[in-house]
Amino acid sequence: MVRSAAVECGATVWLTGLPSAGKTTVARVLAGRLRTEGRRVEVLDGDEIRRFLSAGLGFSREDRHTNVQRIGLVAEVLARNGVFAVVPVIAPYADSREAVRKRHAASDTPYVEVHVATPVEVCSERDVKGLYARQAAGALKGLTGVDDPYEPPLTPDVYLPTQHQTPQESADAVYTALAERGLL
């Protein structure tokens, strides 16, 4: 007799914000906590996705949209199959993020949008990858939130003012939101 195993609940946790806002740091802390509880988790880091799945794309609005849609597809498939897809990506355009949300809704897959709402001044001080310094020196054009648009979510499921929280506190806020939605 073959038994069918019930698929555990998965979800996409989409962390959007400016470069150096703390998206990846929060994602890693959250993923670690979920893993210690025995949950299946994949972190779909925007930088890694760009190097592999979206290699060859530039930073035009159209290429950014394509990149977000590719990431959204992978996240939705993982989440639909019982994995927590934790997605730290800039995703600067509201319409691109909304298309990902709609894709999840169409498959009845949980989607939680997290705005890592760190002010550009704080991101510039953190400057994890040196992007703000390169932009200030004139060596980089099209930096999201500086000389390229970032459309912050108007009604995110979770709002994280990371300049006032530790990464652990931010991850805990996301974890609480997942629990409140019955996803844990």
Overview of this structure, please?
This protein has 184 residues and is an alpha/beta fold. It is 43% helix and 12% strand. The protein has seven helices and five strands; from the N terminus they run E-H-E-H-H-E-H-E-H-H-E-H. Strands 2-3-1-4-5 form a five-stranded parallel β-sheet, sandwiched between helices. The protein starts with 10 loop residues before the first strand and ends with a helix.
Which oligomeric state applies? single chain
| Element-level helix/strand string | EHEHHEHEHHEH
Q: Determine the N-to-C terminus distance.
A: 30 Å
The general outline is: globular
> What does the radius of gyration come to?
16 Å
Largest sheet: 5 strands, parallel
Number of strands: 5
Structural class per helix/strand content?
alpha/beta
Q: What strand order characterises the main sheet? A: 2-3-1-4-5
Per DSSP, the total helix count is 7
Helix content estimate: 40-55%
Strand content: 5-15%
Low-confidence stretches: 1-6
Question: Taking all residues together, what is the mean pLDDT?
Answer: 92
